[in-house]
């Protein structure tokens, strides 16, 4: 049954005094293999898309398989002004999950957005939490994760290049010349278009 508590083994951190830096804490704690985590929480192998040994995506098919299971509670952490030491939304969210999971034996996941690289390299820094309430490995979470942030970067660059090219051609060519470049005629000097394109062109010419 999916209703019972997960049979999950939580890793115990090695608390040091004085408390070291966030990056030192992250690197001192070896993370558990993601396939082992999936097994402990009941995610099937065919529902897991691993990205190496520490990261993975979970298929939305798991929602269909568990649609008969009673919904859990959803806690939203928003609108926090970080303290001078940096405890903000991410640190609070992770700390809350640590309290509910290892200490109270509740089934719990922390859902965080993937940080963008601008704030990560700026004054704000990353969004992995801090101290002993952080996502590990910190570098993987802040910089790469599953590569989606790089796909967004590539798409943004493509759009910027397309807009630049459009502005360049529109500034150097009249509409008729630009239209002929975009919709060239065939060898017989005719413009052959699909029906919906013909209506679109008649509307704008």
TrEMBL record:
GO BP field: tetrahydrofolate interconversion
Enzyme class, spelled out: ligase
SUPFAM superfamilies: P-loop containing nucleoside triphosphate hydrolases (SSF52540)
Pathway: One-carbon metabolism; tetrahydrofolate interconversion
Keyword Lyase among record annotations: no
UniProt GO MF annotations: ATP binding; formate-tetrahydrofolate ligase activity
Keyword field: ATP-binding, Ligase, Nucleotide-binding, One-carbon metabolism
InterPro entries: Formate_THF_ligase, Formate_THF_ligase_CS, P-loop_NTPase
Tagged with keyword ATP-binding: yes
Domain of life: Eukaryota
EC code(s) of this entry: 6.3.4.3
Name of the protein in its database record: formate--tetrahydrofolate ligase
Natural source organism: Ancylostoma caninum (Dog hookworm)
